[in-house]
């Protein structure tokens, strides 16, 4: 609680605070997340599961592809069609607030939070689960201070950052640049030539599989059968 008060005073006195904190295996980080309560933002228990296949990746409903809200932090990514990936995220609920609170990342209306968290045994909605949508990234400006908060502890790991083509890293770098007032630094940074990933939703991946494995082969087979039958008919007519 003492550390919580130190951080709260720091932000209220004009300090800049970046937090990357997701769900824990036991309960919730009550003292840490209570920093948001002062500004009308509450943290929900559990891990967010996405019900819309357009909003998750890798056939895993807990690997979120949230929508981005317009802000100085997210606009450069939106303009270049880069999308962050947020695995194992906590859901934030933004209530009415007299402070400047911006939802940077939001889940779809079909998302929900599994209160069993890491102990979940199914991705289906169960009694006691919390209905979405949720914010998984927010920016709070209390006076001259600022807090930028991302609710996944894993989204900066190399694998997820690479899968987002560096969008996760750019998102955090833009947040830091915004907090220190370096507007010219908010951009899409140069990418490594060692990888070039394409981030698509699970529904798009399923559609491509159906087309490549089923529809296209059947179409080519049908065209081949049609060509053979046409040639045989012409040969018979010639005889």
Order of strands in the sheet with most strands: 1-12-11-8-5
Largest sheet: 5 strands, mixed
Helix-strand makeup class: alpha+beta
Taken as a percent bin, the fraction of beta residues is 15-25%
| Helix content percent band | 25-40%
Q: First CA to last CA: what distance?
A: 96 Å
How confident overall, as mean pLDDT?
87
**Global outline:** elongated
Number of strands: 12
In the predicted model, the low-confidence regions spanning at least 5 consecutive residues are: none
Number of helices: 6
Give an overview of the whole structure.
By secondary structure, the protein is an alpha+beta fold. The chain is 34% helix and 18% strand. It has six helices and twelve strands. The protein has a five-stranded mixed sheet with strand order 1-12-11-8-5, with helices on both faces. It has a three-stranded antiparallel sheet with strand order 3-9-10, with no helix packed on it. A two-stranded antiparallel sheet has the order 2-7. Strand 11 (135-141) and strand 12 form a beta hairpin. The radius of gyration is 24 Å and the shape is elongated.
Structure in a nutshell:
By secondary structure, this protein is α+β, with helices and mostly antiparallel strands.
Topology:
Elements: H1 2-12, E1 16-20, H2 30-37, E2 41-43, E3 47-49, E4 63-64, E5 67-68, H3 75-79, E6 86-87, E7 92-94, E8 100-106, E9 112-114, E10 130-131, E11 135-141, E12 146-150, H4 158-163, H5 167-180, H6 202-238
Parallel strand pairs: 1-12
Antiparallel strand pairs: 2-7, 3-9, 4-6, 5-8, 8-11, 9-10, 11-12
């Amino acid at each position: 609680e003492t550390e919580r008060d130190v951080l709260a005073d720091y932000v209220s006195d004009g300090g800049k605070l970046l937090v990357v904190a997701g769900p824990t295996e036991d309960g919730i980080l009550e003292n840490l997340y209570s920093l948001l309560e002062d500004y009308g933002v509450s943290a929900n228990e559990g891990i967010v599961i996405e019900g819309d296949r357009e909003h998750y990746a890798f056939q895993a409903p807990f690997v979120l592809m949230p929508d981005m809200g317009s802000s100085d932090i997210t606009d450069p990514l939106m303009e270049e069609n880069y999308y962050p990936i947020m695995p194992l995220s906590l859901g934030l609920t933004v209530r009415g607030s007299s402070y400047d609170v911006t939802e940077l990342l939001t889940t779809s209306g079909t998302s929900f939070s599994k209160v069993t968290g890491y102990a979940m045994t199914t991705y289906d909605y169960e009694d006691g689960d919390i209905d979405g949508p949720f914010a998984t990234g927010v920016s709070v400006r209390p006076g001259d201070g600022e807090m930028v908060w991302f609710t996944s502890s894993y989204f900066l790991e190399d694998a997820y950052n690479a899968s987002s083509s560096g969008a996760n890293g750019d998102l955090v770098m833009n947040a830091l640049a915004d907090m220190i007032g370096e507007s010219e630094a908010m951009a899409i940074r140069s990418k490594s030539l060692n990888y070039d990933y394409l981030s698509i939703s699970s529904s798009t991946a399923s559609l491509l599989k159906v087309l490549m494995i089923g529809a296209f082969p059947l179409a080519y087979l049908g065209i081949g059968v049609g060509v053979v039958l046409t040639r045989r008919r012409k040969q018979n007519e010639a005889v």
